[in-house]
Amino acid sequence: MHDWTGKTVIIDLTDGKIIENNSDLNQLRYYIGGRGLGVKLYSDMILPNIDPLSPENILIFTTGPLTGTRTPLSGRHVMVSKSPLTGTIFDSSSGGFFGKELKFAGLDALIIKGVSDEPVYISIQDNDIRINNAIDLWGKNVRQCTDQLSGKGRMACIGRAGERLVPIANVMNDYFHACGRGGLGAVMGSKKLKAVVVKGTQKPVIADEERFEKGCKEASGLIKKGSSGLSTYGTSALLNLMNYQKILPAGNFRKNEFSDASNVSGEFIKENYDIKGHACYNCTIACKHIIKSGAFEGYEVPEYETLWSFGPDNNNSDIGSIIKVNRMCNDYGIDTISAGSTIAAYAEIMGEDVKEFTELVKKIGDNAGVGKELGNGSKVLSNSRGKDVSIQCKGLELPGYDPRGLMGMALAYATSNRGGCHLRAYMAGPEVLGKPKKVDRKTFSGKAELVKIQQDETCSIDSLVLCKFASFSVPTEVFAELLGAATGLDYSIGEFLKCGERIWNLERLFNNKAGFSRLDDTLPERFFEKGGIDRTEFEKSLDEYYLQRGWDGSGVPTQGKLRELGIG
Q: What pLDDT is stored for residue 2 in this prediction?
């Protein structure tokens, strides 16, 4: 088998059994790997009404056919489970070096079942797989845990937020890379699994080396040409741009611009801090940045979403406070978008801006005091306080792009299978950045088809598994060519996108069976208020989206569509 490893490992933490199986070639062929493989395995093994934190739930780590290869931006892995925050099927991917090691250890998928009686960590050294006692690691945050296990390989671990089953807890790897959103850290914590540590030496085998090398060179050239801004500033470069376009949410989305945006921008950070780039495995962009000197020496520069959520969304222009709270969130293993957005909702409920973020984040991470409420996310908080101020879709807090000025993003938020997310279809690309081409951001016209195409392609890219930034510069045909050259199985552009459509529909089917319907494909009421989104136009666009998808008027995939995609 070329480039796929052909091996899936199942670990039952209840009885300590470790089972190695051959990966199903048909599943790999039609679901690619990564996100697709994880969703297929999860859907086949788990009923949609499962309690995400019950022993019966499972947690899946996957690699893709391009993970750990010479393909640029190929150091990622994926996790799949059911979210304790949203109740949807949930995938999350992360960069760094953990994914490469998992692939080099010979794994297409690692499936974690059951629950241990006491804290454990899993050690994978090529074919040597063990379950080890982790009592001495339990209670420690990410940096301390990573330091203690650092000599054993690359690791994915949880901080205290995951241990305490906080629904916005992340799984972290390489200190500050996150499988973020949705609370998969709580799922890991519910199994008493502190960490997975991996070291591998088995390099992927490419089917057609010459053809593959040609595709890698083409992709590298395109990425290098289109990523200079990311290399210089990272994603923080977006903040001033979004503010200029009046689509930067502020004060819990009560405003669409922030007067002090420049003080928390990428340009401000570049001018006032000595920073250096940090790259994931086989990445030429190095969008992550580390502060080299001063009071914050060694601290990671916050991403755009963190700058926004703890900055403008909370009416905060103190960059130092954001840098500090970002480090704290990464250490506890807390999702910065959900945490910042939930605190913004809390501030609106209380009628005053929050000043001391680190105190609240510590309470979230320790599941103590008001942190017990905040850690449940803004939807639960708003419901418990009797005030409709939660800015979320399907329970997942929205990121820093105001949908009132981005009609395509509005539709993408509402229809996202995992909830309010910009990464299912990054419509800010065409609507703001002009990638791959500029479209009118203030109309729903043509957006249903474009959102559907982006969602399908994103599914396929997440299954390869490649960084989202690759899609900014590399056309679909190059992805299909790389996949074919690596595996020896030819994929046309149509077949490549059909894989993505298959994955998207399988996720949707799972969510439908879990109780989600058209009623959940909507936006917070705040966005439909006077001067916002026209509800009638939104509903028409949703109808058009369902038509493009081949679903019925309730948002359920038709039997004809499922037969076409080969979904039983």
A: 87
